[in-house]
Structures are given as C-alpha cells and as structure tokens.
User: Fold this.
Amino acid sequence: MKLNYKNIDLQHTKAILFDLGGVIVDISPDAAINAFSKLGLENLAEQISHCHHQGLFKQYESGSISTKEFIDEIQNQLPVKVDDHQVIDAWNAMLRDFPLERFKLIENLRQQFPIYLLSNTNEIHCKAYKKMVNGCEDAERLFTKAYYSFEIKQSKPSRESFNFVCEDTGLRPDEILFLDDSPINIDAAKKMGFKTRLVTADMPITKVFEISQ
Assistant:
C-alpha cells in the first residue's frame, strides 16, 4: 500500500538514504568529552563534535587507523593507563538513544523503498548502535545496505562518499532522498543533485514522514 506523507513529497524517489548520528540515533558529543575527561584526557572539544570530528577521531572514522591503533593512542595520551573497555565505554558515551519509533518508521519505509545508510562513523560506534534497540540483536538489518566511512574510506561531505553510494546502488542522485542533520552535508548532496531534507530537533524523521490522514 502506497502511503502519503504530510511533510514531504516522495514522487520520483527510488531510494532513501539516511545519516545515522543525530538522525536515527541520538548523540551527545559532550557526554563523550566528559567521559574521556574522567579518565584524564582533557581538551577534546575541538576534536569531538556533533557532525565532523577532527584529529585522532577523524582518522578513526575515516578508516586510516584501526580500532587497536585508536585505543592504543588514547591510552598513550592518558596520564594513567586504564582497561581498554573503559576507553570503549567513554567513546560510546556519545551514543544516547535509538528510539523504537524511529526503528519502526524505517521498517515501514523499507516496505516501499530501498533504505540505505551513509554514516561518518567508526567500528566501535558501529558495533554499539546495532544493539541499541531493545529486542533487536542487529539494527543494521533495517537497511538494504549500510555505507560506513571507516569501511568505504570516504566521509561526508566529500563528493566521493556520495558518488560511492550512487555507483554501488546504480541510482542517480536525483532518484535518492538524503536526510542528514548537518547543513554542510545537505548542501554538498544538494549540489550533486540529491533530493535532500535537513533533520532538526523540530523536524525529526518521525515528523518528516508523518502520514497524512
């Protein structure tokens, strides 16, 4: 059954491409910064941000260093070494919630469209988010295919990251609706011809895809 939505026109759309953090999963960079601070690693505000990390964290999400190398470097910067799981927990403190209503929304959308994910993320966060929904062992099953920056070695807002999705799916940009919470990423996709929608606190994906009665 084809559904109509109040706040978006999906005519001529052949697939939907979601961002992860800030769109599907709620995130808090400050929570990770504070968690690392408790371990003794300070001054991370310039490296950990809502949409675009820098320094070591950028290297990790771009796939240029492995999880072991990431943890080892964090350990090297700590005044006193801790258990590796404490480093992982501090980094995962950024991931706050994966609301069930969003999970169900994407399940429903997948009945009508191929659903893809394009996320600037890393192996530690990737493993964690998959288990965040109660009763779901692997949330990645929601997606027809997921493209993670640390795996494809490309990150938004680069043209290469969006081209990678188009080439792999065989779809043109104008056939894909892209949703992200970063204006920079949205602008880059729009310039390439993608249909776009900026996700905000006032317009979460559950409201974007609110069904017309």
Summary: The beta strands are 15-18, 26-27, 95-97, 115-119, 145-148, 176-180, 195-198. The chain has a mean pLDDT of 95. The two ends are 14 Å apart (CA to CA). The chain is about 40% helix and 15% strand.
